[in-house]
Design a protein that fits this description.
The protein is α+β, with helices and mostly antiparallel strands and about 600 residues long. The protein is about 50% helix and about 15% strand. It has helices at about 1-15, 15-35, 45-50, 70-85, 110-120, 180-195, 205, 220, 230-240, 245-250, 310-325, 365-375, 395-420, 425-450, 455-485, 490-525, 525-560, 560-565, 575, 585-595; strands at about 50-60, 95, 100-105, 125-135, 260-265, 275-280, 285, 290-295, 300-310, 335, 340-345, 355-360, 380-390. The chain is elongated.
Length: about 600
């Protein structure tokens, strides 16, 4: 029976060396990864590092009534927050101020500029069939290359090659010798026919526009367009539009509804500004399910791949099938983002794959920006940037300094208490606190580039509160060991018998703390989430440190002469603890007395 007892004893005490080696390897890996990644300090929030504060003012588009309402403002806050955090700028604060203002606070970081550029971008995306187009500033009806672009699906469409000056007019008649005036007349008739097909144009109606001219010399060819005031105004505005002027580009198509034809500007593949008359929108940005930036393997240029939802895929297949039967430029559809044409691919067959590709003069940042705003949705309102203010970290630095001083005082009091009450055991507690601090610092530093975690003042408060939680776990275990010694057990068995009871108490206590942190993180926003996140993280680390460091270290310490002999400065002196005599000795004393009396 001796061998099994020895085996159970060894199994109960475990192998503390392995646990200590494991946590040492984890510490080396985390600290090494911190230095290898080049990030040796945690990312700081706007209150500690400074950053940018942007004030956006909502405005209603012409024809919209009561658009600036609490519902749309709350939706806009959510969209902006998802966009900014999608760029990796965590700890950004987005909140409403008053009835029509949104305040965006962006901490200083690598993506700060991108975030500033995107917060107020409306990202209204429409796919509109092209009725006519030409290089701005050129003669009426002059042919021109279209902006580079393509649409892809299964099968894919080919991008329009574009015509050069002096080649075919944009009416697609095929008459290379057509004069500019004749081309302009044909374009006007094509646009008029497309628009008057339905007094209130719809995507389906606008897609029926045909670019084929009437036979030369026929009454239809010489007849002027129908005298529709809206159409005449649209053509007049188109003739006067000069997209090289920023003011006219901004005003082009302003206030037009998705169900109405509109004017727009865009740059072609040659870098020239081109103007358009566009039919009502056939597809909206809400039909896009996902968008990602990628590099075209054939051209090596940046593109944006879009995936439509079920409804959008059906619309896309239908409209591309209708456009494929038409001639240039009315076999093209313009991809319009916030009123500007970013691409106008031509279509030669129906695309039923449910995907599209936006190409153009993109670099990596512009492609990623466009994919980001398309993925997280359009803003329900338009915004003007009222103010952009740089925020210094002076105030936050003072508060951080005061908080660190308070934390240092609290830590010093904890250490003094441990030394005064637990003596030698205090060294184990201090070493455990140091290990916990190293792990916390390394993980917070690595979480910055990994998930965008930024350390703010509430997060620092959470780390300071965690000192008490960690010290509480040590005290629970130490007191359990002392209770076993008071019962008359020696130190080595006491350390092992106390662990199961202390372990349950520690786990229950840490579970309650972690649950509170998780609930706080879910139900709060902004900086308070930083406090909750740090509290939850340090609570988990407390479990790791107690199980893999504190407990094994106590087991090893109990094997040393200083602790096993119950030295007065060990904190485990049986006399000071009022230990009872061993139970076995009391039985040996009373047994002979009872025998003699008998």
């Amino acid at each position: 029976m001796a061998a099994p007892k020895k085996g159970r004893k060894a199994g109960a005490q475990g192998r503390p060396g392995r646990a200590l080696a494991l946590i040492l390897i984890a510490m080396v890996a985390l600290v090494g990864g911190m230095f290898l990644s080049g990030h040796t300090t945690p990312r700081l929030g706007i209150d500690l590092a400074g950053g940018t504060s942007i004030t956006l003012k909502a405005k209603s588009e012409p024809g919209q009534k009561n658009a600036v309402n609490p519902t749309n403002m709350d939706t806009a806050v959510g969209v902006i927050e998802r966009r900014v955090n999608g760029l990796g700028v965590s700890e950004a604060e987005v909140q409403t101020q008053g009835s029509d203002n949104i305040i965006v606070n962006i901490p200083k970081g690598t993506n700060e500029k991108q975030a500033r550029d995107q917060v107020g971008t409306t990202a209204q995306l429409y796919f509109r069939p092209v009725l006519t187009t030409e290089v701005t500033g050129g003669p009426q009806g002059s042919a021109s290359p279209a902006p580079s672009g393509s649409a892809s699906g299964k099968p894919s469409a080919k991008p329009s090659a574009g015509a050069t000056d002096g080649e075919k007019a944009t009416d697609g008649s095929g008459d290379d010798k057509a004069s500019p005036s004749a081309s302009a007349t044909t374009q006007g008739r094509a646009v008029t026919d497309a628009l008057k097909a339905d007094p209130t144009p719809s995507p389906a109606a606008s897609d029926k526009a045909s670019g084929e001219p009437a036979p030369s010399g026929s009454p239809e060819a010489s007849a002027p367009p129908a005298a529709d005031p809206a159409t005449e105004k649209l053509q007049k505005d188109y003739a006067a539009l000069d997209c090289t002027k920023p003011a006219q580009r901004t005003e082009a198509g302003q206030g037009a509804k998705p169900t109405e034809p509109t004017l727009a500007c865009g740059k072609n593949g040659a870098g020239q500004w081109q103007k358009y008359i566009l039919a009502p929108a056939a597809i909206e940005g809400t039909d896009v399910d996902n968008a990602k930036a990628a590099i075209d393997q054939q051209t090596g240029q940046w593109i944006v791949n879009m995936e439509f939802n079920g409804k959008g895929a059906d619309k896309f297949g239908k409209v591309t099938g209708e456009l494929a039967a038409k001639q240039s430029p009315q076999n093209q559809f313009a991809i319009v983002l916030d009123g500007e044409v970013v691409s106008d691919p031509s279509v030669n067959q129906a695309l039923n794959g449910g995907s599209a590709q936006i190409s153009g003069s993109f670099d990596q940042q512009s492609a990623e920006d466009l994919a980001n705003v398309l993925s997280y949705g359009a803003l329900p309102l338009s915004f003007n940037v009222e103010t952009v203010t740089s925020v210094t970290a002076a105030l936050g630095g003072e508060q951080l300094e005061a908080g660190l001083i308070a934390g240092a005082i609290g830590l010093a009091l904890v250490v003094i208490y441990l030394i005064a009450y637990y003596r030698g055991l205090a060294l184990i507690a201090i070493f455990s606190l140091v290990v916990s601090a190293i792990l916390t610092y390394a993980i917070m530093t690595l979480l910055g580039p990994a998930i965008g975690f930024a350390l703010n003042l509430p997060a620092v408060c959470g780390a300071i509160v965690a000192i008490g939680i960690t010290a509480d776990s040590f005290i629970v275990y130490f007191e359990r060991v002392r209770d076993e010694i008071r019962e008359g057990r020696s130190i080595r068995p006491a350390a092992e018998r106390a662990w199961p009871r202390a372990r349950r108490t520690i786990l229950v206590s840490d579970f309650v703390s972690f649950l509170a942190a998780a609930v706080l993180f879910v139900v709060t926003v902004g900086k308070v989430q930083g406090f909750a996140f740090t509290l939850g993280l340090t609570t988990l680390l407390d479990v790791v440190v107690v199980f893999l460091f504190t407990k094994p270290l106590v087991t090893l310490a109990a094997r040393t002469k200083f602790f096993s002999s119950g030295h007065p400065w060990s904190g485990l002196d049986p006399k000071r603890l009022g230990a009872k005599p061993p139970l076995r000795r009391s039985r040996r004393v009373h047994a002979p007395v009872e025998t003699k009396e008998a």
